């Protein structure tokens, strides 16, 4: 860690210090995720990104479960920056596809493809949705669930939180908000997709909202 990073990190209060609950690092630079988490937590805790602490490394995700990936990212930041940190991993699990894409959700279109210049890139949401809809085809079993796992490392102790939302995969994209698979996922109890519902409603009912609520409850009430 260079001197600038030392200055940044050493001047952060822990997540239980100061007014408003202090600070904690979210091991991501994904602006969609940061916006969701910050909106869910509100003013209770200030959430810093990897950029905020001077970390610009593309932290590897080599685990074969959501739990392993979340912990791998959090552990990297804790080991290198010595701050309280949490990381998440999210997967879309489709019943008719035996739980796929699951841990490979962000790079589903590229899984099993030969490495070529035309190969879909990681986090190519359009390509991921296209592959998923193709593989489901006309299958009438559209049941699916989003699952988020959060790994928190606080003062060296590891804690995990899980959030699940059940729903179904519709047959065509609908809506312009959100990200990832939101345009084709319709949560139970609603006749709109996540991408149609908008962030205000999504952040009350989503898998990430449910996992984050458990995280916030732990941080604020332990």
- Major sheet summary line: 7 strands, mixed
What is the string of helix and strand elements?
HEHEHEEHEEEHHH
- Number of helical stretches of at least 4 residues: 7
- Care to count the β-strands? 7
- Whole-angstrom Rg: 18 Å
Low-pLDDT ranges: 3-13, 16-20, 114-119
Mean pLDDT: 86
Which percent band covers the strand fraction? Answer: 15-25%
Q: Briefly note the structural class of the backbone.
A: alpha/beta
Helicity level: 25-40%
Overall 3D form: globular
Distance between the termini: 31 Å
Condensed summary:
The chain is of the alpha/beta class. About 35% of the residues lie in helices and about 20% in strands.
Question: What do these coordinates show?
Answer:
The chain is an alpha/beta fold and 222 residues long. Helix content is 33%, strand content 21%. The protein contains 7 helices and 7 strands, in the order αβαβαββαβββααα. The longest helix is centred in the first third of the chain and has 16 residues, at 66-81. The protein is globular.
Map the helices and strands.
Blueprint: H1 3-10, E1 23-26, H2 31-41, E2 46-48, H3 66-81, E3 85-94, E4 101-102, H4 125-136, E5 143-154, E6 157-169, E7 185-187, H5 194-197, H6 199-205, H7 207-221
Parallel strand pairs: 1-2, 1-3
Antiparallel strand pairs: 3-4, 3-5, 5-6, 6-7
Helix pairs in contact: 2-7, 6-7
